[in-house]
Every structure is written in C-alpha cells, then in structure tokens.
Amino acid sequence: MTDRGRLEPRLAFYARHQELIEEWLGVRGDFRRRANKFYRKLPIRGPAETKLEEGQHKARGREWRWVSIEKADGVWKGAALRLEWNDKTTFATGHLRIGIWIGDYEGEEGLPALNELSNSLHTHDPEMGWKGDGSRPWLIYLDRDQMPRPREEYWNDLGGFGSELATFVSERWGTLAKALDALFNERA
C-alpha cells in the first residue's frame, strides 16, 4: 500500500478483474484432467510379448499416474518401462518421465547387473542424455525437457502432438526393451 491507502498496481489489477481471474482459475482442474486423459490414451506401441498396464499411486502429496509395459512372461522380474506424470501435469508443464522403472523389481541379486545396464546405456547412447544413477525407483530415465515439446497452438492439433510423443516413447521403449531382454536372457 502507498501512504494514501491505495493498492499497488498488481493488486489493483487483481481487484478490478477478480471475478474473471477466479473463473479462469477454475478451468485449471479441467485442463489438467484433459491432459491426464491425453497421456493415458497415447497410442504407444510396446515391443512384442509385452503387456501394457496403467495405474496410479499417491506419494509426496500428489497423485502419480503411469502407463507401463512389462514382459508378459515375467522375465524382467518386475522391472518395467514406464511413462509417468502427476496430477499437476499439463500438456506443456509439470512432471513427465520415461524410462526403466525398478520400484517393483523382485529381488536384490539382479541389481548389480541392472546398474551395469544403466552404465552401458549412458556410455553407448550419450546423445540421448539418459539420467539416473542405477538406483530405485528409476534405473534410467528421460525427463520432459528431453522429449518432444508441444508447438505453438498445440491445442489445435493434440492428435499431431500425441502422435509425435507416442512415437518418441515407443522408440525409446524399444531401445530399452532390447537392453532388458539382452540382460535377462544372458542371466537365464
């Protein structure tokens, strides 16, 4: 406040437009729900002999959602390829991650081999920019800043953006699935 009792300009703007601002803030939840549906329905192709699943859990005060694939025969022992987002994620902002999820991995004996796999992917595919140190729950991953971004006025072509993102995820999952198959087949 100034000494004459007036609101500073940004607060005065809010006071003048409060009703409209509050109405627009109400749209945010609808927008996030639409983004959640978008990610759940991406036309992702999993490698052969895999099953596609989706789920959610609560952690750190947020709802986390994912689409993941696992080997149908259980060969990966609970390791999975996952695309994950949370309840605050929209098309262009918020958490979005793909990679190898080992949060449900069965047993400790294979973890050194999984760490070697993580190191191998970092070494042999450095331009991809894989993150992760081989620890749980994400063995190796890519964040939103390494994925295709929506273009200007993406809301006019969600199908185009969805196809681009689904192709990106499917290709990365294919690479990671081959690496997991090789690892678990050599250990069999």
Write the layout of secondary structure elements.
Layout: H1 9-40, E1 50-59, E2 62-71, E3 80-86, E4 96-101, H2 111-124, E5 138-143, H3 158-187
Antiparallel strand pairs: 1-2, 2-3, 3-4, 4-5
What would you say this structure looks like, in words?
This protein has a five-stranded antiparallel β-sheet. Helices cover 40% and strands 21% of the residues. The chain is elongated, with a radius of gyration of 21 Å. It has three helices and five strands, in the order H-E-E-E-E-H-E-H. By secondary structure, it is an alpha+beta fold.
Unreliable segments of 5+ consecutive residues? none
The outline comes out as: elongated
The pLDDT mean sits at 84
The radius of gyration over CA amounts to 21 Å
Fraction in helix: 40-55%
CA(first)-CA(last) distance: 72 Å
- How would a crystallographer describe the biggest sheet? 5 strands, antiparallel
- Count the strands? 5
In summary, what is this structure?
The chain has 188 residues and is of the alpha+beta class.
Observed structural traits:
188 residues; alpha+beta; 3 helices
